[in-house]
Design a protein that fits this description.
With about 325 residues, the protein is mainly alpha-helical. It has three domains: about 110 residues, Winged helix-like DNA-binding domain superfamily/Winged helix DNA-binding domain (Arc Repressor Mutant, subunit A), CATH 1.10.10; about 100 residues, no CATH class; about 45 residues. The protein is about 65% helix and about 0% strand. The chain has 13 helices and two strands, in the order αβαααβααααααααα. The longest helix has about 55 residues. The chain starts with 20 loop residues before the first helix and ends with a helix.
């Protein structure tokens, strides 16, 4: 009988997870509450559906109630996790589900180790490419080739990989298209298998959206796109190096925070202006209403003007402006 179970009783955790820059930033922004909420959600993902979690008000309440936090604090932590790539922002926005490339890869690996054959990631939330089946007969044919034929075949396969490897992988294809759409960076014809592995590792750690955003940053930054005194220009082989990417991503993250702070400050300023305008309009409206009401009773405005002003102020106070 087929085993259709998708949840797990436990999951493996990387021992260096707290060295991850995203986890460090999460702790810096929200303290231990941020780490606790993120870890709780991960446990719920693997305990419930195995590779995703439907996120709604009830889920937010459960998390908040467990840790004694406010629900809006939990929502802020989740949104921050999406912004930095711990969860996929586009999937949450489109279908209300929390997942990521690393979660889906770990889910796939655990299914393989548990020998579960029917563990399928729903197509509408799939981030990683589908695993293709290995055909044993192909390796048997290759072993029968002569040394000369082997060398020729390997060379052809290598050439083909450079041109077509990205077409067989949605993640690599997305990165390749983004890189070759840049205006200032040197384009590439394709990826080798090793480059594809490097890119998958970056996407697994940082999320596809953040990798693509970092490519845009390289293309727009004068210090990286060749429009500088040193004429330094980022090449793909330099970009996909994990240490170089970490440096780039830190710059992108800081830039993103500054932009968000600017937006928040502008929004706050506009809010204050809007509130002030509202108060002024309500004040004018209140004065007019009080004046009309008192006029009907033949109020002596000439000799009782201060009394009129006091009545207006009392009416304004009732509005809580």
């Amino acid at each position: 009988m087929a085993n259709n179970k998708t949840s797990f009783a436990y999951y493996a955790v990387d021992t260096d997870r707290y060295q991850d820059i995203k986890i460090k930033r999460l702790k810096k922004s929200f303290g231990c509450d941020g780490i606790a909420v993120y870890d709780y959600i991960l446990c719920e993902i693997y305990r419930d559906k195995g590779c995703f979690l439907v996120w709604d008000e009830n889920r937010a309440f459960d998390v908040a109630d467990y840790f004694g936090l406010k629900e809006n604090t939990v929502e802020e932590i989740v949104q921050w996790c999406c912004t930095c790539g711990l969860f996929d922002k586009s999937v949450l926005t489109s279908v209300g589900v929390l997942t990521s490339a690393s979660i889906q890869r770990r889910f796939t690996d655990m299914c393989i180790k548990a020998k579960r054959k029917d563990c399928v990631i729903p197509e509408n939330i799939r981030i990683i490419p589908e695993q293709s089946n290995i055909i044993p007969e192909q390796s048997q044919i290759i072993t029968e080739l002569s040394d000369k034929e082997k060398k020729s075949k390997v060379n052809k396969i290598a050439d083909a990989n450079i041109l077509t490897i990205a077409n067989d992988d949605k993640t690599a294809a997305s990165v390749l298209r983004k890189w070759n759409s840049t205006k200032n960076l040197p384009h590439i014809s394709g990826m080798t298998q090793s480059e594809k592995t490097y890119i998958e590792s970056l996407v697994d750690s940082y999320g596809l959206e953040n990798v693509l955003e970092t490519i845009d940053y390289c293309d727009e930054s004068k210090s990286l796109n060749g429009n500088n005194k040193s004429t330094f220009k980022v090449k793909f082989c330099w970009f996909r190096n994990i240490e170089n990417f970490k440096t780039l991503y830190d710059e992108v993250f800081e830039l993103r925070l500054k932009r968000q702070q600017t937006i928040d400050a502008e929004s706050e300023r506009n809010g204050r202006i809007e509130l002030q305008e509202k108060r002024e309009l309500e004040l004018v409206k209140t004065k007019r209403e009080v004046y009309n009401r008192l006029s009907e009773s033949n109020f002596d405005f000439a000799n009782r003007w201060q009394e009129y002003e006091d009545i207006v102020q009392n009416e304004v106070k009732k509005l809580n402006l």
